[in-house]
Every structure is written in C-alpha cells, then in structure tokens.
Write a structure and sequence with these properties.
By secondary structure, the chain is mainly β. Helix content is about 0%, strand content about 55%. It has no helices and eleven strands. The strands form two sheets. Strands 2, 4, 5, 6, 9, 10 and 11 form a seven-stranded mixed beta sheet that branches. Strands 1-3-8-7 form a four-stranded antiparallel beta sheet, with no helix packed on it. A hairpin with a 6-residue loop joins strand 4 and strand 5. The protein is globular and about 40 Å long.
C-alpha cells in the first residue's frame, strides 16, 4: 500500500505563495504519474496538476501560469509551487499517484486557505 506524506498546506493571503510537497512511500512500484486534485466544500474534486515520471505536465486551466508542478523521482516526491493565490483556490488538496500498473492512490489531503 502506498502512503503519502503531504506538507505545505496552510493559510495565505491572496496574492501570496505556498509550496506543497508529497512523498510517496510504502510501495516500490514506480509512480508513473503524481499530482494534486482539490475539492472545495460542496464542489466536485477537480484536477489541479499532474506530472509524469518523464516530466510531462498537465494543469487545470484555472491554475495555468500560476502553479508549477515538479518532482524528484529519486525521492518519490512531487512539489506544487502555487503563486498568485486566489480565494477560489481554497480547498483541500489531495496528493495522487498512479503506478505503472495503473493503480491510483490518494493522500489524506491538506487544507489550503486563501484569504482575501
């Protein structure tokens, strides 16, 4: 079973920045894709950003130009740099990983709150 250590959540004012990190452990199977989804109260969970082991990235339109995802494959760690944060970015952010067999695992989530 994959376990995640997620850090970097918290409270920030609009226009500020935060960096999330997510380290996957517990399984030696390669994590082909890592990323984050987020879910605001009363809203459906949505993709934020993903990155493959080869470095290909995908971003939600709402965060393009503001968020940057990266990863350190040797550490099984993904990073999400979030700049120019907006109140609408407020949500629980869930780390996600898909291994080379297609199995998806989820972290426990970390709260991001952006004040106006």
């Amino acid at each position: 079973q994959v376990q995640f250590v997620e850090s970097g959540g918290g409270l920030v004012q609009a226009g500020g920045s935060l960096r999330l990190s997510c380290t996957a452990s517990g399984s030696t199977v390669s994590k082909r894709v890592m990323g984050w989804y987020r879910q605001a109260p009363g809203k459906q969970r949505e993709l934020v950003a993903t990155i493959t082991s080869g470095g290909s990235t995908n971003y939600a339109d709402s965060v393009k130009g503001r968020f940057t995802i990266s990863r350190d494959n040797a550490k099984n760690t993904a990073y999400l740099q979030m700049n120019s944060l907006k109140p609408e970015d407020t949500a629980v952010y869930y780390c996600n990983a898909v291994n080379l067999f297609g199995k998806t695992d989820w972290g426990q989530g970390t709260q991001i709150t952006v004040s106006s």
